[in-house]
Fold this protein.
Amino acid sequence: MLTDLRSAFQNLRRSPRFAVAAILTLGLGLGANATLFTLVHGVLLQGFPYQDDARLVVLTRDGQRSAHVSLPDAADLRREMHGFAGVAFRLTGWAMDLTGSGDPERLTAAVVEPEYFPILGVAPARGRVFETRDADARLAVLSDALWRTRFGGDPAVIGRTLTLSGHPYVVTGIMPASFGALDPEAQLWVPAAAETPWALPQRGSNMFEAIARLAPGVTLAQANTELQALTTRLAAAYPATNGGKILAATPLRDFAGAPARPALLALWVAVGLLLLITCANLAGLLLARGISRQGALALRLALGASGENLLRTQLLEASLLALAGAGLGLALASRLLPLVVDLAGSALPRSTELGLGPAVVVASLALALLTALVFAAVPAWRASRLSPGSVLGQLRSGADRATHRLLGLCVTVESTLALLLLVGCLLLGRTFVSLNAVKLGFEPERVLSADLVLPEIRYGTAAPQTAAFTAMVERVNAIPGVIAAATVISPPLKGSGVAHTVEVEGEIARDSVPRGASSRPVVGDYFATMQIPIVRGRAFEPRDDARSLPVAIVNETFARQRLGTGDPLGRRVALVVDDTLHWLTVVGVARDVHTNRVADGDVPAVYTPYVQRVVGWQRFGTLMVRAQGDPALLTRQIQAAVWSVDPSVPLSGVMPLESLVQQSLGRERMSAVVSLVLALSALVVAAQGIFALLSFVTNLRRREMAVRLALGAGPAAVARLVAGRGVRLAGAGLVAGLLIAALSSRLLGALLYGVTAADWVSYGVAAGLLLTVALLASLGPARRAARTDPMQVLRNEGME
């Protein structure tokens, strides 16, 4: 075995071009496959570190990402749902300021019910979690990361009192590091009854997400049937707040991976195509090498070597190639994975958990060995069955026609698959370009956004909240270099925010039209700051204060869906809070803005002056500052202006709006860039396959070329003969690829924007690129064929 292994290694050393081509081919395919498999497994398939996580579900509304329900809904579900072993609501992304030592620090909390921890089935690493008996006590459970970074991993922090948003909270426990998989941004957990007591009776405060555990023996379908019946009854009982709030249970794994699922599955299919291309290329390389070595192998057989020895040596060669290719592929994957994660940004859930684990390494090694051995088996078996006497005649006449056809088929398959990848790449690339050109409804250039939260202990009512935000906006507006500043609740590209049920005076209720709308109170001249056009009516004015008639500006989507075709100005709408209707008069219609991502449109929205808002718990907002130059340079001055009003209020989430726009394009950017890399890799492999095939065939047919030249054929004619074969093979693959692409490109429909799946420009460019690459790959062998010396070849062949 050692002798055969040494012989296999020396054989590869004597054929460096073949070895390098095979290793690079395998490395490209395996590297891309390992990268995408890691992403798909980590985001879509990997379970959560919770007890029996397969029975955990998230409650959603039809067509919506999450439920956005209220705490009274939780009580109804716990009381009447028999298909759930437990239900708990949570509110993520809740800002709390840690004060008392040094500058205030903004922390991200999750406001949860006591049932939250038992439902997930995870015990604290230290201390205890809060329970039903102390649900309204001010308690806090810390994340492992916050405990280690802020408190140095000191166990004595349990029992310590922290000042959070002006209130004393007692630390009761520390969760394991893995607990934050569902909400990686959460630094601590606090009870909903203590932190958001105003939400307990408000059936219309649809801010919470619901997580439930299926009861033993209950299937998802059974739970959904019961859930739909219950929420339909609640909608009939409370039409003002629960109308249209029909819930469905979605498995937690499906819910978490849903945003990235279409893009990841499409890219994984693309990686599969690239892997098939590398397999076809490797098959052609091994077949061609087997034929070219027939003379040497026949000589070894004539000198006494056994067929089994030849078979074993060639399979060992294939194994060495597989190991080298797998090593290269894993090295590429280790570099590609963090790049893809960075490209996707926040669009890729659970990205902090991703890494090349042992399973990926073992799978890559197994796939490499399987691929290499399968495609090496036929040439190796044929070599072991060679008859030395029959080899000489075949060498003089060249490879048989069947071998030529098989090699040509490999190139055609490569071309077909490469074209499919090119078409997909161009469609996704044009999508990304289209999204970059989308009119957002506002101008993000030179705008800085920063989140503000007022401590409840000093700002528990509407009047001090309004006074503080108004003063902050005035101080920021006074900073040199600031063009305009304003605050808003639910800014663009940060989600639809707080939703309220909205009634329209004189409207006939329709089940097909949602009655909820995003509530967006503003301070200052928000529409001028963001440069959002008012398409009808007027913007808010200083006279729209607490003493004047309550007014509202609706967006185009609300006006279209709820106000009909008539004049929207002067119509009355009502925000529903605790079954009370707060009537507002519409004075303007604002242009829609993109709410969640650039690819999404706007939801129905109602803007109000902050001083006229209908709930007193909205003590938060996002400060938007438009500057003359780079707004990031004004961050310190803006923070100083805010601190001049209240030194306990820090800025958080400070980010130029242009960066937020690019962040929202993470999924599309990842798809476009990764598909581009895959398409270029496919072109390189296909070009290498065409070049290798023509080089091999030209070498086998050198006597034919010599005869043609000796009989008067010009070098150009010989070159056209060789190049024409490569272009014809690629052309056959092109036709097949176009047909398959036309039939299958609709699968990309969910990922496309501004371009159709049948975009003829993408098809034409892909076909042109493939033919160009095929022609360039054919030039080298064609030039060598044209330079053949007839006399020397015929003399060497014994035909002088």
Confidence is low (pLDDT under 50) at residues 391-398.
